[in-house]
Every structure is written in C-alpha cells, then in structure tokens.
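Hi D.,

Good news: the full-assembly prediction came through. Inputs first.
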Amino acid sequence: MKILVVDDEQDIRFLFEQKFRREIKSGTVNFSFAYSGHEALEYLHENSQKAVLILSDINMPGMSGLELLKKIREEKPAPPPVVMMITAYGDQQNRESAMMLGADDFLTKPLDFSQLKEKLNKMV
Amino acid sequence: MLFIAILLVFAIRYLRKVLPPKALGRNWDFYLLAGNVAAITFFVAYFIFNQLDLLFALLCYIMVGILIYRVFVIPEWRIARPMTYSILPLAIAMMAADITQAFAFSFYESAKMYFDIAFAFGVVWAFILGIIFRNQNKALETEKQKLEEKEREIAASEKVKAMLEGQVAERTTELTRQKEELQKALEELKAAQTQLIHAEKMASLGELTAGIAHEIQNPLNFVNNFSDVSKELLDEMKEAMEKGETEEAKKIMQDVIDNLEKINHHGKRADAIVKGMLQHSRTSTGQKELTDINALCDEYLRLAYHGLRAKDKSFNSKYKTEFDESIPKLNIVPQDIGRVILNMLNNAFYAVSERSKAEKAAVNEKMKTSGENYQPSVILQTRNLKNEVEISIMDNGNGIPENIREKIFQPFFTTKPTGKGTGLGLSLSYDIIKAHGGEIRINSVPGESTTFKITLPYN
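Then the structure:
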C-alpha cells in the first residue's frame, strides 16, 4: 500500500520508518514523504503510482493541510485516495472543517501508532 | 363747662383711634368707652336740662387730667403726646375760667375778657398745632406706608431669597447626588477596566493556549513515539545479541542513539516554548535603572552574533554599529530592553541568513552570475532625537511582505519553520516597549531590507 505522509516536521520520516520498519521490510506498505502542501501536490502530479492513503498534517507553513485536502478533492485523482488529517489542534472546529472538505479520518498528535496501524489493517 | 365735655369726647375718641389695643389693654379700653359714654351723657344732659353741675365738669377735668398724665407717663401712650400739647393750654384756660367762675364769680366777671382771650388763644393754639400735627401725622403715615412698602419689598425679596436658597440647596443636593453617581460610575468603569484587562489577559492566554497546544504537541509527538519505538528497538537489539547477530545489534543501537538525540532535541524544543510562554506571561518585576543604551546594544549584538555562530557554523554576516555618543543614560529595565534588542537582532540575522541560503541556491542553479554576490549585513544604530532615543536594527534580508506586517506582533505568529521560532519574540518585545512608553515601527522593502525602529522616551 502506497502511503504519502505530509508534514513540515522533518523527523516525521524517521518516526514512520521506525514505527513501520517491519511492514516496510515485508513490503506491505511503502511510504513517501512531502514536507509541505506544494511538495505533496507535486508528488501526486508527478508519480504515476498513485498513493492509496494520504496522511497530512493541518498546520503547515505555506499551503495548509486543509488547503491541500481541498485541492486533492477538486482535482479528483483516480482512484480517489483516502485522506487522513493529523493535527495537534484536535478541536471540534478543525475536525468539522476537515470532514466538510472530504477527509476520511482525523487523528491527533501525539500520534497513537497502534490506532493508526489498526486503521490501516482495516483498509487492507 | 360744656367745652371740657366736648374736649373729653374728642380726647377719648382720639386716644381710642391712635392707641393700639395692646397699649390700651382691656381695662383702659373699657374706661375710655365708659368715659366717652359719660361725657356724651353729660353733653346730652346739658341740652335737656340746659344746666350743668360743677361736679360733672370737675369729673371731666379729672378724667382729662388722668388721660394727660397717662400720655406723659405710660410709654405705650406716648404716641398721643403731640395732640396733648395742642389741647393742654385750652384745657388749662377752660379749667381756670370754670374754677374762677364757680368760686370767684365777681373776679371772673371783671377778668372775663382775659379768660376769653386765654380761651381764644387755647383754641387757636389747639387748631394750629392740630393742623401741624395732622400734617406731621400724614407725613408720618406716608413714611410709614413707604416703610411698610419697603418692608413688604424686603419680605418679598426675603421670600425670593429663601426660594433661591431652597433652589440652590436643591441643586446642590442634585449635584452631590450626580457627583456620587459619577463617582460610582467611575468606580464601576475602573472595575470594568480591570475586568477587561483581566479578560484581555485571559483571551491572550486562550490564544497562547491554542498556540502552545500545537507547539507542545508536535515535540511531544516525537518524544512519546521515539521513546516508544526505542523500547521496541532495544528489545530487538537484545534478541539480536542473544542470537549473536552483532552487526544487526549495532545497527539497532545506532538507531536508538539517534532516537535518543531526537528525544533530547524535541524535549528542549518543548522546554524553550514553555520558557518563552512564561517570559511572555510574566509581569515584569525588573527594576528600572539608569542604563547606557549604546553599551547595552553592543553587549546584545555580540551575544546574538556569537550565539548564532555557535549554533550554525555556516552562518556568517557582516555587522556594523553606528552609536550616537550624545545619548544620555536612560531609566529602563535593562534585561527587558536587552531581550527586545536580542530578539530583533536574532530576527535580522535570521533574515540575512535565509536570504544568503536562497541566493547561494540560486547561484548553484546558475540562475545568477557569481558577480552578483550577496553580502549579508546587519546595522545597529542609535540616535539621540529631541526627547527620545531611537534604536534602529537594519538588515538586508528578505524583507517582510506587506500582508503580514500587521500580524508580526501577534503572539505565536512566526514565518520561521516549525521548531525554529515560538512566535513570541516580537509580541513580547512589543509589550516591553509599550511598558516603557516607547514605540516600534517597521520599514521593510520585500526582497531587499527591513528596519525596525524602537523609540524610547527620555522621561
């Protein structure tokens, strides 16, 4: 499963790579990383192998996660990716905004990886 | 003898007319009435019997005498004195004639002419004085009326005065009440202001909390998850060692070391955020003291520059000071103003450093020729203005876009990437400068330069 993680925190890559080291090794998941909304869009445009799941932070400099979500939903790539929003702002307003824009799920920081893995297993 | 009866009637009528009831009293009012009746009876009897008894005449004389005596002795009767003066000679003349006629008739007959002359003189005297006193009385009456008029006017003005005083008292009460109401309103306003300041602080705290939540949750995400995964890795390392897979164990160990470094880094990041927040919310307890602004600027310039150099070895920038030596010592909280200068200098060095990186990247991509080398530069300048000192921090960095200039003093607003700035520096600086009665102004050309001008009043 191709997963694109979008977050302006560079260390997110190491964290995901370590947390999913077994899955990566076995080839069940394949992670790509983008550090801004623009980078994520570029990645989506340039890669023919489409990401099935996008995990995106909301609060990022430049294009925010919500703007990215809006753009993805406007561009309607086929097949439509599952988008999960991740944010430190776990308030209801953010959650509602994300859901209104077409997010499939909403996770809050600090990330609960066992919960995330459960969700991914369900998707698989 | 008839005349004394007429005189008595006249005198009694006159006294009853001029004397006030209080002066007469109940008794004398009765006596005078009785005397009047007696005199009239005497008068009527004379016309019926055409003869007069000497006794009656004497009675009349005694009564006239008593009346004259009282007029001269009783102070309340004094008002009747003028008229008494006018009738006294006539009464004496009549009495002398009557007594002489009764007891020495022959003498009376021989001297009748003198008695008649005396009588005539008494009548003329009484008449003239009567007229004079009448006129005087009239004049007095007029004066009295005028006096009464004046008294009425005075009474009226007293009434008006009393009314005005009443109004003044009423108005004073009203004003006092209004003053009290205003005082109360002022107190309420002060309380409201205090509440507003408190609310503002709470709102600010609310804004801070949202920012803090984000700023803290991000490093916490790494601290929690890296420590969690490190534990897993250590278990794996243990397994590998037990299996004798030393290389694998070493690899895992390196990952754990890297993780611990990251945990440490993100822990410090959270610590910096909390410290910044505490600095921001802290009410300055610092004491003001006379400070050499130029020395303070110089000290913090070195601190900023060397601090940045220690963190980032690749960082390099020119810096220059232009100090106005005529600036007197300023009464400020040196730590607070120092923090402002440090913050502005850090921003300036950050701006030139970012532009330098961008320029280098552009050169590397051959977008620019090597001849257009960018020279990062920061200038710290002080100027002695008339009533204030101006501290300018100028950099030739990327500049501040117009659309964010108003936001840069808001807490947690930052253009730096996550983890590089808390967004509290300028907000804190703004509060400090305002607390010193000064101002901060920005002048920026996007893509070229930024100048922050801080003014601090001498007083």
